[in-house]
Design goal:
By secondary structure, this protein is of the alpha/beta class. 27% of the residues lie in helices and 26% in strands. Residues 1-118 form the CMP/dCMP-type deaminase domain.
Length: 320
Amino acid sequence: MREAARLGEAARGRTAPNPNVGCLIVQSGKIVGQGETAPGGRPHAEAVALKQAGKKAKGATLYTTLEPCAHASDRGPTCSALIISAGIARVVIGIKDPDPRTAGQGIKMLRKAGIDVKCGVAKDAARASLSGYLSRIERGRPRITLKLALSIDGKIALPSGESKWITGEDARAHVHLERAHSDMILVGRGTYNADRPKLDVRLPGLEDWSPRRALLTHGDTVEGWEILSSPQDVHRLHDVNDLLVEGGSATATAFLSADLVDRILIYRAPILVGEGKSSVGYIGLDAIADAHGRWKAADGTGLGIDRLEVYERVRDEEAG
């Protein structure tokens, strides 16, 4: 299941509004088919893996990060129907699909056909790989990641505004990889006016993975950019699973103040700036005690001379 989650994670940013599912088919201890949801959302991961497995799928076990779909679509047969017709004997599922069109119906359909079904295996890994899709279905908005490039002392620029480049090439390459796995990338009007950023992906072979561009601004239209008038407008992004917010300070502050950030990526450079521009302004906290328990360290790794720190928002349902 963890390998299936890895496959699904690789497709993140390419499948919205469909989920980025990963799937493996195992026969006699060997992988005979594997796949992830294709760009654009079709074919689904299970269909890709079943096609690869061919006749070897009969009597095999299928591992999928998300419950196979069961609702009718004019884009193709349901995955549950494909699994049944292929003769799969056992299906192992990471998590149930929260989409009300399927929610439990896929599992019911498989069991009715005599297939042994087990759900909830390595569910944390499955949820992590599908976090953008799950956020959109469960919260009505994309999963929102805030990216910050900081000095040791938490500055994003000198007093003059100079900020290129705080981090090194390895960190900047990782940012481009994160862009490739996002459906949309957003900056504020100040960043747009100062830098006219392209916000594209400049990694060899991934140029076509550049996400849609959005601008947080009031009353303006900019060719080639989608406009959000406020952070709350993310609730109308019904075809975006993962949104990456890149800056600047005012935009970061706006999203944090609205408590809409689910994950923070801090690319920290081994430099001291001293007096300079802070990454975030006032976000509504008046006591240190109120700041504790809101974020958890999720990961950390070196990127050349720099270090990546990953933090995740602790929501009420997780804290309980």
